[in-house]
Design goal:
The protein is α/β, with parallel strands linked by helices. The protein is about 55% helix and about 15% strand. The structure holds cytidine-5'-monophosphate (C5P) and magnesium ion. Magnesium ion (MG) binds next to helix 1.
């Protein structure tokens, strides 16, 4: 099925533990956004009965590396198709994480209106992740996987944010060392025109 061209897609990017999910949940409570987390979609596919991608997804998540774009883009495309009759505004959280994903998604699914880049120090992110690890049950919230996820973020995902900034001019940077409420105020400001 085709994608409505009048949807608003917002990419939500930033390092592991920066608070992308927290801010997206707040937006969903206050506004009509569909929140699609690429990581959550991959984790669901990883346990989906009969999926041919279970092993490959599991391995990449454990290693903190990026799942091949075909898998992630197919999951996102399907989720958008399933929700586009009810929602006009989509938060795509944790995607694109690699340059090929950004280019293919915008060529074959749709162009993003905006990118929220949650900027933070590694120290703050690490503290948040170690706190989250007590309750998250995530297989990659352990120190070995976390270090690999940071490496991937710096080497593979930061260049995507630079591309979206310098080539597409759609990046708004949010300082995420602040409190959840202060961050949320700035997120809402950045989304003016969409919300
Ligand atoms: O965003 P989140 O931290 O939930 O992602 C968990 C893992 O899912 C990543 O470390 C990566 O292995 C995989 N992922 C991916 N491509 C994306 C988003 C997540 O490969 N765009
Ligand atoms: Mg998340």
């Amino acid at each position: 099925m085709s994608i409505n061209s009048d949807l608003n897609v917002v990419f939500v990017l930033g390092g592991p533990g920066v608070g992308k999910g927290t801010q997206c949940s707040k937006l969903v409570k206050d506004f009509k956004f569909k929140h699609l987390s690429a990581g959550d979609l991959l984790r669901a596919e990883q346990v989906a009965e009969g999926s041919q991608f279970r092993d490959i997804i599991k391995q990449h998540i454990k290693d903190g590396t990026i799942v091949p774009q075909e898998i992630t883009i197919a999951l996102l495309r399907q989720a958008i198709v399933n929700n586009q009759h009810e929602y006009k505004n989509f938060l795509i959280d944790g995607f694109p994480r690699k340059l090929d994903q950004a280019i293919t998604f915008e060529e074959t699914v749709m162009k993003a209106k905006l990118t929220l880049f949650f900027d933070c120090t590694k120290e703050v992110m690490l503290n948040r992740l170690m706190e989250r690890s007590k309750t998250s049950g995530r297989e990659d919230d352990n120190i070995e996987s976390i270090e690999k996820r940071f490496d991937t973020f710096v080497n593979t995902s930061m260049p995507v944010i630079e591309y979206l900034d310098t080539e597409r001019h759609i990046v708004k940077k949010i300082d995420c060392t602040k409190s959840v409420e202060e961050i949320y105020t700035n997120v809402k400001k950045a989304l003016e025109g969409i919300i």
